[in-house]
Here is the input.
Amino acid sequence: MMTTILFQGDSITDGSRGRSDDPNHILGHSYVYLIGSKLGYDLAEKQPLIINRGISGNRVSDLYARWNEDAIALQPDVISILIGANDAWRSMDGEPSGVTDRFGRAYKILLEETRDVLPDTKLILLEPFILKTGATEDRWDQWQERIQLYQKITKELAAEFGAIFVPLQAAFNDACRRAEADYWIWDGVHPTSAGQQIIAEQWLSTVQKSKLALL
Here is the structure.
């Protein structure tokens, strides 16, 4: 039986994905492409369907606004979510859309609705992350405080909803022992191709060692 895995999030997930059925571009060039390549090869006999519905600029509230069409209606077996960068960025920049921090509340409502409508769908929540370079450097302490709050919320929600939690911040911190921060995340928020590989490896390692193992 074919497994459908849906990836949701912002630009880090989007990866300039195609908006057509062209299989060469449909997954974009983010960690989703790397994970899809690995699973597609390893599970060729089962032909898993990998769907990328990340949209650049999205916050959790934006995900919720399109959740019926871009998640529920797709009836996925697994939903993987990476979100938080834009919630933090808009709050840090004082934009009107970021005045009220809805990260925790909107995330919980989204997960509650998913559990109600798709009780058998497995959930994977990825930890939001940053590094000290580019956009985050000038107000690093504030950025770090905000992201650490989001990391705590994400981990708590994963526990509450029985989701797999994929830690990422420590992996990026460790990578900085090998190369400077902007080698992995060019502006402090958006990963380079090398940074996307970190996410993919953490996702595959965590999921394949969990109760959701796909192999």
Notes: The longest helix spans residues 140-160. The chain has a mean pLDDT of 94. The radius of gyration is 16 Å.
